[in-house]
């Protein structure tokens, strides 16, 4: 099992913000081996970071390995502050880099450091002579500061040292973004959880992207924290600066071109489980949700897929045309409502299946999927004069559970909200009859859209609304069921 903290719970709304609930997730046997291998690898390569973060939390020190009056080599402090394994020229041999990539071990990092100790340390001159870092004394082996040093001054960096306390003061005063994340989180049962207790931690604010394939010295780097969701999104989606993980580590051009957001994997898995026919209760339990309805929010199957999965009697498929058959699927799945559906059921009850199918063939040939919901009104004779204005109170509009439909309605709601705010902000001397009409128009549409957003999938949004597809005069016309009633009366 994986121990984790679940979101999207019923009790999430709290005054102090988002709540996290400790939970466990069973791992399917087919994934056990790769999951254990992955997590053990993560635990191994982050062990030095985790141990340092724990000691930083306990001591409130940046470099807890040393007392404040300790002198350490300037090159080592450079690596501790930046994370950059490279501190001298020439570049690190490819063989040493490959060795590290194969093992990610401390021994491989030590070999890289040893290789560089005899080189030229010009980059240290630039680093220690930059900005506020120039205020940190560079000292000789016995601790005496090297006075009047300039950027161009020739310093023997192999025998140059800095005092730990000097650097810690500098970071606290000038480089607070280089401080580790040591603040605990209190979860919903009152347990206090520290960052070093999490499986997924990462180095923060390191400057390693452009050199030596981005090798970070995990055994020395001092700034450590939780994985930041924005950093993770940038590194997988390409939204931001720097290479994506796919660009850096992909084996093929196709791999390197990949882009995704981490949360999209959750949506994808949720949708695929629905496609495989897994029960919604099982999907809800798998994602540790409290409500089955939450699982349907992440169901991105198309409406056509939903309808295809509905089993129908052979008679229906034989007697119904293409669009009436789709309407019948909607009715069978309780995904449609409105006067066509109501009359179909009345015909079905009073005259049987065959007559009901004839009714659908005549009246339900106009299945339309609009950006705001379904319309199953027939437009065989005339097009709808209010096409795509159905959110404004049309009785034919029925909601579905398609995500884009919800998003379209939300965008439309926000648009009218801005119009209302703008109109209400006009000074009194600029308000006239036209202003009043515009405001009324916007308010009515805003209220109708809010009602549509609050309607469950498959339900009619405006059951008492008006038929925007026809004029008021034509609304008094007859239907097939009226004709059937007259024929029945004649037979009696």
Automatic annotation (TrEMBL):
InterPro entries noted in UniProt: DNA_brk_join_enz (IPR011010)
Name of protein: Integrase
Source organism (scientific name): Rhizobium binae
Lineage summary: Bacteria, Pseudomonadati, Pseudomonadota, Alphaproteobacteria, Hyphomicrobiales
